Amino acid sequence: MVSRFEHPAGSYKKIFETCEDLAEALPATVTGRIPPFLKGSLLRLGPGLFEIGDEPFYHLFDGQALMHKFDFKNGQVTYFRKFIRTDAYVRAITEKRVVITEFGTFAYPDPCKNIFSRFFSYFKGVEVTDNCLVNVYPIGEDYYAVTETNYITKVNVETLETLKKVDMCNYVNINGVTAHPHIEKDGTVYNIGNCMGKGASLAYNIVRTPPTQKDKSDPIEKSKVVVQFPSAERFKPSYVHSFGMSENYFVFVETPVKINLLKFLSAWSIRGSNYMDCFESNESQGTLFHIAKKDPGEYIDVKFKGAAIGMFHHINTFEDQGFIVFDLCSWKGFEFVYNYLWLANLRANWDEVKKAAMMAPQPEVRRYVIPLDVHKEEQGKNLVSLPYTTATATMHSDGTVWLEPEVLFSGPRQAFEFPQINYQKFSGKNYTYAYGLGLNHFIPDRICKLNVKTKETWVWQEPDSYPSEPLFVQTPEGVDEDDGT
């Protein structure tokens, strides 16, 4: 699956150029054949505005949220796009400057204001961005564009009009939620975010939002915390991008990449600070793996630990013969991978892109296995007895269970990321196939398919083509897990 493509012409730089709204949908040129069963809309979100007037955004995740819509019908495709009218976007366009601090770009106070009001604006509290550039998903009958803060934005998926901004803090004890929830067949949504727990200590809450209500009330108003995970450090939550969910359990991976809350709260009084300045790594922590029962929610107080990894995306999680098996797209070590996603790095010439990526943590697809019953076992013995994996779990004398993974895919500076599966039929179940976006030194230049049982890989790649993450659509009468498009 290693990429054989070089990109010396630098055509990947187009990914990081500002786009404009479209007034109407455009017909797409189709090469090949689109299956006739493929009907409906594919929605994608990503950064689309990389500077305001003379002021640039500096980090990939600062670009303002642009929604793309592909409509499929009778083998034909139309394409439409529109910026989401978040507060961050509207105010920036109106004032022709960066108004709300983003991930890696500090918003300076309005230079037209007098010095007293500028000074005061540094201390009025954190104005959190609502730039919802990461994902879009349904809650009840509505669709929301999301980032990782407490704000989610309701959108009309037909017209791509922005409808309203919703603050999740109004409904549940949460500082923010991830952009990667789990959605059950009935429409129940589960998500995770950090919060202030008992005695002003940090914790992580799993929030359940019910499906469409018979009385047509908003399901978000009925959101509830179902279980709480403890935090390893009192004022430093780990960065959380996704979590695992099987039929009966949640899996939460607490990595050594931390948000220093004291820095976060004071950063806005320091000229030039942004979110990226608030991240640090706890090199001594390693990685902690937490599990909890789903219904009723109950934290299982056993310390599962492993070597330090960075991690953004869970692939799938399932139970088998008294074990929880979960597969991750991981990055070896404790360094924060987002340090390598500054736009200046990504827009560099190909030799420079490669040179920067040589310094970054190495990507690896890993399988971990957690035994659900660890009380009767003796120390020093591998507790994992599943015949199909080399992943191990070993009880140490202090009661910690040390996890070693099985590596499902590894290629130097070649990442299998943004994973997808046949989610409708195999989420939370023993599965065979994962699909991913292949990153070649952080440049997305291929689509990959991985058999997690045999480790066999397949790749689609064409010159000067830079795809988005894949999405699997099962053939209507399809029986096999990978019978689809």
TrEMBL record:
Bilayer disposition of the protein: Lipid-anchor
Catalytic activity: lutein = (3R,3'S)-zeaxanthin; all-trans-retinyl hexadecanoate + H2O = 11-cis-retinol + hexadecanoate + H(+); an all-trans-retinyl ester + H2O = 11-cis-retinol + a fatty acid + H(+)
Key words of the record: Cell membrane, Hydrolase, Iron, Isomerase, Lipoprotein, Membrane, Metal-binding, Palmitate, Sensory transduction, Vision
Any Pfam family hit: RPE65
Presence of the UniProt keyword Hydrolase in the record: yes
GO molecular function: all-trans-retinyl-ester hydrolase, 11-cis retinol forming activity; beta-carotene 15,15'-dioxygenase activity; metal ion binding; retinol isomerase activity
Location in or out of the cell: Cell membrane
Keyword S-adenosyl-L-methionine attached: no
Signal peptide: none
Alphabetized InterPro entries for the sequence: Carotenoid_Oase (IPR004294)
Cofactor field: Fe(2+)
GO cellular component, as recorded: plasma membrane
Binding site for Fe cation: 180, 241, 313
Documented EC number(s): 3.1.1.64, 5.3.3.22
GO BP field: retinal metabolic process; visual perception; zeaxanthin biosynthetic process
Cofactor note: Binds 1 Fe(2+) ion per subunit.
Family: Belongs to the carotenoid oxygenase family.
UniProt protein name: Retinoid isomerohydrolase
Species this chain originates from: Takifugu rubripes (Japanese pufferfish)
